[in-house]
Automatic annotation (TrEMBL):
SUPFAM superfamilies: S-adenosyl-L-methionine-dependent methyltransferases (SSF53335)
Lineage: Bacteria, Bacillati, Cyanobacteriota, Cyanophyceae, Oscillatoriophycideae
Organism: Crocosphaera chwakensis CCY0110
Main location: cytoplasm
Location(s) in or outside the cell: Cytoplasm
Protein name: Ribosomal protein L11 methyltransferase
GO CC annotations, alphabetized: cytoplasm; ribosome
Biological process annotations from GO: methylation
InterPro entries (alphabetical): Ribosomal_L11_MeTrfase_PrmA, Ribosomal_PrmA_MeTrfase, SAM-dependent_MTases_sf
Any Pfam family the entry gives: PrmA
GO molecular function: protein-lysine N-methyltransferase activity
Amino acid sequence: MSNSWWEITILCHPHLEESITWRLDKFGCSGTSREIKGKSYIIQAYAPQIQYQSLDISALSLWLQQDALVLNLPQPLTRWKLIEEEDWASSWKEHWEPTEVGDRFIVYPAWLTPPEETDKLILRLDPGVAFGTGTHPTTQLCLESLEMRLSKPKENTVIADIGSGSGILSIGAILLGASKAYAVDIDPLAVKAARENRHLNQIHPDHLVINQGSLSELLELVNDGVDGIVCNILAEVIIDLIPHFSKLAKPNTWGVLSGILIEQSQAIADTLEQEGWIVAALWKRKQWCCFQIRKAPKD
């Protein structure tokens, strides 16, 4: 018997897109897509029925209305219905097109045939129920940051990807020339999707290790530290993780952190400073930001 999913459809003002996407992600939705309809946006997202009841979706609808009131924008119209898993898989994929990210990447849906000749790095992806399709500003900011950091990768560059979702960032790092990446996520479905995407991009498991878990799992996998840390998850989780980053770090380790709303950036910056990290750059896109960090030199 297949699993059922809530299909949540939101008709909204375009300026509400980022707050709605953030709210849906925080709620636990998967496979978010956007469609333009006249002067409005239609945003669709999916949540497993086994985890959420109709009352939970009603509460989500109220939160979306309250967010719009705070921003002094028209309230969105939210509708939801139950669909079967195979219908969910096909519904949101209909709206996902190849996406160019930065100067070097094009993220290509697995069910489309990529071009034979291109000067781009083709990152093929089927996220399943995991976060990370290349369309969200935080994912794009992270890929662009990796592009800069790995423009001239050193030999034997090792990356850690915490909260890897679909695996898009660690796969991107390997395509850019990193020698090895370790990716972890607490969600077993995300781990499954990331492993399938590793195979889709013809990356050997020895070069990209994907396990279920979080920082503690990484510490067991990595003996000598990593050269780069990538983390695109909720800001509250990043704040909890920052004090432990030093356990993974070498003297010259750098990091790319996103999933952070601009109004949350000061709390992140303060925590980084307290834990001996320097903010080398802060990139912003719409309501989101991405920290590029490095270890502060010891006195």
